[in-house]
Fold this sequence. Notes:
By secondary structure, the protein is low in regular secondary structure. 5% of the residues lie in helices and 0% in strands.
Amino acid sequence: MTSRLKTTGPQTNGPAKKASGEPEVAAGEARGGADLRGAHLAGADLRSIPLGSADLSRARLARADLSYALLSRADLTGADLTGARLYRARLDGADLTGAVGLTQAQVTEALGDGDTRLAEGLNRPAHWRDG
Length: 131
């Protein structure tokens, strides 16, 4: 079972909680510039979530579904992307250096540009735009 990262409206009575008692991410936190360093998001449903410019360095994103997620200019250095789904995820200008478990197949299904920095051994796909 995957969890869905919620982007609900601003909270006034403390952070929102999921039925399981875990905190949800409020709007603004899941948007540009979010600090999610080292976050445990393995298996999470992050489809179409706007995470542009977010700090996801060393985040645990193994098996997460990041399809169509906006990750432009996001910091994914050292993030665990083992088995993560990146179908049409926007990686323009993102930093994926040192990403763990990232494969060429994952990179190829994503969208990036000449400013996207990839982990060692991975190549920029031909369909990516120039920077």
